[in-house]
Each structure stands twice: as structure tokens, then as C-alpha cells.
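Can't attach files on this board, so I'm pasting raw text. These are the components:
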Amino acid sequence: MQHYNVKIDAFEGPLDLLLHLINRLEIDIYDIPVAEITEQYLIFIHTMKELELDIASEYLVMAATLLAIKSKMLLPKHEEEAFDEDMTLEMEEDPRDELVERLVEYRKFKEAAEDLKELEHERSLMYTKPPSDLTEITKETKSEKANLEVSLYDMLGALQKLMRRKKLQKPLSTRITRQEIPIEMRINEIMKELKGFKGKKSFNDLFSVSNREHVVVTFLAILELIKRRDIHVTQEMNFSEIFVEATEGI
Amino acid sequence: MNIVNWYGIVESLLFAAGDEGLSLKQIASVLEVEEMQAKEMMDGLIVSLQEDKKRGMTVLEIGGTYQLATKKENAVYLKKLVESPSTSTLSQAALETLAVIAYKQPITRVEIEEIRGVKTERPLQTLSAKALIKEVGRAEGNGRAYLYGTTKEFLDTFGLKNIAELPKLPEQSEEDDITQNEADLFFEKFQESLES
Amino acid sequence: MNIVNWYGIVESLLFAAGDEGLSLKQIASVLEVEEMQAKEMMDGLIVSLQEDKKRGMTVLEIGGTYQLATKKENAVYLKKLVESPSTSTLSQAALETLAVIAYKQPITRVEIEEIRGVKTERPLQTLSAKALIKEVGRAEGNGRAYLYGTTKEFLDTFGLKNIAELPKLPEQSEEDDITQNEADLFFEKFQESLES
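---
Top answer:
C-alpha cells for the assembled complex are below.
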């Protein structure tokens, strides 16, 4: 039973997908069994199609690349190589080399991105303040036009700082903030809805309001209810409709 | 937790709270002590800051809230800093104000201050003096406040053909892809709920 | 003037400058000392702040400027009063793109796309709008594509003194299980669909 939505773009691209397959199949990245990985890759693409997901062209290009490598691996050695046996070792290029190189290179940056995430988190634990208003202790500004050494990035950078600050100060400020829907309230609503309804209710019907926050809160409420075992969720088969009913009624 | 650590925590809190300051009640609630105790600690902090020559800060008690401020006697150095000629660029405050005007024009001073959360008189003066912004009209309603907008000088300075050429703000461009956002949000919340 | 007073003055200056920060040159000029001396004093200040439990502040050195910030270890208390921005605001795509640019700058979009294996237009837009990257020039050759590099805002966002302080690029390391979680979920779903 799957009672959650799955992020459709869990992969950042074909290289990311390949890394995942390699990792999952516990394959040595420097000695990839091309036939196996190609098969898995194609199955994945096929599944995406079945799910009617848009497949970015990059994925298809990679599929073609894999098939090309696979066929090269099957081909007998080139004739030229027989001519000059001394050269053989040098000439004999593994058709997988280029792909491996790309994967290893990509993996480095994927990991570096994780490091950045960690750094960003660390930095976010330290709060800085905006510059103080020093109006009172300074003289009037003289009128001076232009020759400014500022760029658009300086301005956007300033805006970033402002937004970061706003985010931090939200609860402190007296400004009216967005009305939030308490999960507990939505839980009660859902239970009422289910109890007032004999039998199973379609999962999708619970998401009648298309407001983003409402959707998320509803989703969380359902998760909570599942955890509390107040509701029962069923699905006949994968990708078929999901039904929800109150446990009491069963 | 002992009082030594309290000092550090309260300093962090006051710094982050900025001009809005913190009430005794807020301080007491974070430290999980009685307000009486918090009051004693604040009094101690104020005295120790005042006496410590190594410190440039003081705590002001204004209308029932505490806020950090620089010591009066250091104002002369702040003045020196502000008047140092190294500023061929715009201050953070001016840049922020300019950004708000650029993206939200026409906009009144009060609206800008609402967004920035601080007084904006001086940055507006600076920007006007540098001809980057100008008054473009008056707001409706009583008060009829001035509305500010950017100038041609602004476009020149930032190398823009027109205002539409300003880069999209992250929020705006993300809205292009609402369904993606929803999926992300879903997933994020879902992950969180698994971890909790 | 002795160094004890310097500390107080510099603290005032740093407080007033806020996230705009102060350069060594500015500090030296206000104190009327050599930059070398100012540097020594700043080093001393940073150490003494870090060691003093009574203090809740620290000094960050970012892209050649110093700025005051609250200590990391107090974040837990700040959270009680102010919302923490600790959830990453950048998508995986944006983070990856940023990582490539940070380590390979200056670099063109096409080169980034070669490494990532996917289109990278959108992440570049987001990163530009967040002022984390900027165009730093044009590549040679026909097309004369834009070259991208990181900004000071980048250093600030990730708390780096300078680009050289970036963690070493991993040459080879074990797969990170956590990052694979999302992918695993998808994979399970697709495996199941195969079995059915």
C-alpha cells in the first residue's frame, strides 16, 4: 500500500539516476556491467512512461549512449589492432571510459552540493543584524550624481539580506501574518467527513480545496490519522485509486 | 544553567531582536526563570556592560523593552566611520531601499518601511541625491504620501534597458511552477513527518 | 588609547555596520592604526569572544569584511523567539549548479550542463536572483558565452572567508545514504510496479 505521493523528479538527471542504480546494485563504478545497468535504466524509463511522466530528452540521450556502449562491448576487436600488437594495449579503449569519467566527475559535485548544504545550515545558525540607522550623527548628504560602483548583484544581494531578515523576524513583528490552518483542526474535519459518510471515501476527495497550504495540511492530517490508526487506507493495486475510511466503521 | 551562560544567551537574543527589543516576559520565558530573576539579571548585565571598558554596547530600557545599542561615548567613532570617504558605493540600507522601490514601484515611504522593518528616511535622501529615484506622484487617501519610482539614471547605473529587464525575484520565478512547488512541499513535509 | 578601549570601539563599529560588515581598512582608519595592528586586534577579539561564556556574539570574517553574529550554540534559544531559517532555501538542482560554479569558476552554462548532464537554465536564474552567482565575463571563441562566478553574497550565505576556504572537492568517497533516501522511495515504487 502506498499512501503518499512520490516526488516525480527524485533524480537530477540521467547521471544522477545512473549513480543511483550503481549504488543500489552495489556495482563498482569503474567496472560497470553495461548490459545489466542498461536494462535497469531502460526499465526505469519505461516506468516513467507508464506513469505518463514527461521524460526529459537528456534521459533518452543517455539511453542511446548506454545502448551504444553495450553494442560496442559486444563487438569483436577491431582489425587494426591485430596489425600492430604493440599498440594494442594503448589503443584498446574501454567503451565505458568516457561514461565512467562523467559519472565520477558528476559525483564529486553532487557531494560538494551536500557540503554546501551543511555550510548553509551552519551559517544560518548565526544571526546578523542590518546596519544601524546613523542618521542622527551624520551630516546631510551632498548631492552627488553617478559614478557609483554598484552592480545589479549588489542590489540583489541587499534584497536577499532583507528577505532573510524578514523571515527571521516574522513572529516578532506585529505585521499580520498569513492565516495558518492548524493540523488538528483539519484532522477533526476529516474525521467528521469520514464518519458522516458510510463506506470508503476517495483519497482525492479529501483534497477538495486547491490552496497549496490546505493540500499540505490535509496530507499531514491524513498521515497523522494513519499513525493514530484512526483511519484505514486501502488501494487495490499500485497506481489505482486510494480509499480512506474511518477505522471505527470497519 | 548558570548566570554566566544567561548573559551570553540574552546578548544573542537582544542582538537578534534588534530595534523591536525584548520584554522581561520574553527573556524570562526563554531562560525559563521567573520575571523577577530575569529582571535582576538584566540589571546586572546593564551595570557590567557600562563598567566594562572592553565593551562597546549598552542595554537601553525603552517602554518596557530592552534593546542593545552602542555606547554614547563611542558615537564620535561611528561618525568618523560614516564620514570616511571610502563610500563610492551604496550602503546596504540604500541598496535595500532601492531594490524595494525597483520591484514595487510606485511605492510610498511607509510601505517601504513596512517591508524593511526600519526607518528609511536617510536612504531615500541618499538615493534621491544620487538621482536613482524620484517622486513619481502622490498616493490616494489622506496624507497623500509621495510615491517613489526609479529613474533613467537608475537604469543606466545598473545597465538595464528598462524596468522589465530586472531579474525575476526567486519567489516570482518559482511561482511559474506551482505544481513542482507543491510536490516539493509535499515531500519536504512528508520527510519531516517521518523524522519526527 | 590602549587596546582595551579599542575592543569597545570596534564592537560599537561592528554593531552599527551590521551585515554590511567592516573591512580591515575601515577599522584601521577609524582607530588610526596600521592595518597590521588592526588585524592583530581583530584576531584577539575573535578568540576572546569565542572563549568568553558571558558573550553571546562572535565575529564572522566574510569576503574581506568582519561582521558581528550570534554564536551558533545559542541558535536553540533564538529559535524560541525568532523563526529560524535553517531549512535550506535552495533546491538540489540549484545547490549542484552552485557547487559546480564555486569549484570551477569562471565557467559557462554549457560546461556546467556537461558536468551535470541536464539543462541548467532555471537553477542559474534562481542563483542569479539570489545574488549567489554573477556573470564575470565572456568566454573566448564564437558565441562568447557568459562566464559565471560566485559573489560575496555566496560567501556570506555559506559562512566562508574566501573561495579558498571551500571544503576540498571529494576525490572519491562513499555514497551518502541520506541523499539517496528520496531516490530510494521512487525506486521502490517503480520496483513494485514491475512486480505487479
